[in-house]
Amino acid sequence: EHTVPRGGVGLVNRTEKQEIVTDLNEMFAAAASVIVTHYRGINVSEMGELRREMREADVRFRVTKNRLVRRAIEGTPYSELGDLFEGPTAIAYSDDPIAAAKAAVAYAKKNDKLIVLGGAMGDTVLDEAGVKTVAALPSLDEVRAKLIALLNTPATQLAAVVQAPAGQLARVLAAQGSKEGGEAPAEADIAVTADA
């Protein structure tokens, strides 16, 4: 049965609360990182902008009921965050360990009404400074791109090194043929032979 208390917000019955706790518990168990924020004073349009930016960064953002979250984090890697859930709290979480911190810190820089309280990456609890440090790290996609570039660079350099002696050999043979007065084979013919 739903009733409306003084604040005009509907009460959630016991079954619904248990479902919320179960959903949150599953989310905490699966998330690579969780960032806890306060959002006091953020209006509806700012909240919409915040949620849109979080979605674009592949981060989920959820306003939380503190008492339910404290129950939900029990038995998860994030159980140490319980003390942060006071006041108007929301969480940013992601499968990418860096993305939630990056998105929350970026929005907090633009709008000082969002305050980053702390967070965690698995068992590692982070204070506000720790979250900002993590946010400065490259994202998983950025790391992958750099790794691919590093792997491709040696291959490109190796191909250039392997081709260079063949080209030099072709020029030497062409020059030697010219000195001896004979008709020198075309450089392209020698390069093909050298590559084979």
Q: What distance separates the N and C termini?
A: 82 Å
**Broad shape:** elongated
Mean pLDDT reading: 81
State the secondary-structure class. alpha+beta
Q: Rg, please?
A: 30 Å
Discrete helix count: 7
**How many runs of DSSP E, i.e. beta strands?**
5
Give the spatial strand order of the biggest sheet: 2-3-1-4-5
Stretches with pLDDT under 50, minimum 5 residues:
1-8, 190-196
The largest pleated sheet is described as: 5 strands, antiparallel
Q: Strand share of the residues?
A: 5-15%
Order of helices and strands: HEHEHEHEEHHH
Percent in helix: 40-55%
Topology:
Elements: H1 14-30, E1 33-38, H2 44-56, E2 60-63, H3 66-72, E3 89-94, H4 99-110, E4 115-121, E5 124-127, H5 128-136, H6 140-179, H7 187-195
Antiparallel strand pairs: 1-3, 1-4, 2-3, 4-5
Helix pairs in contact: 1-3, 4-5, 6-7
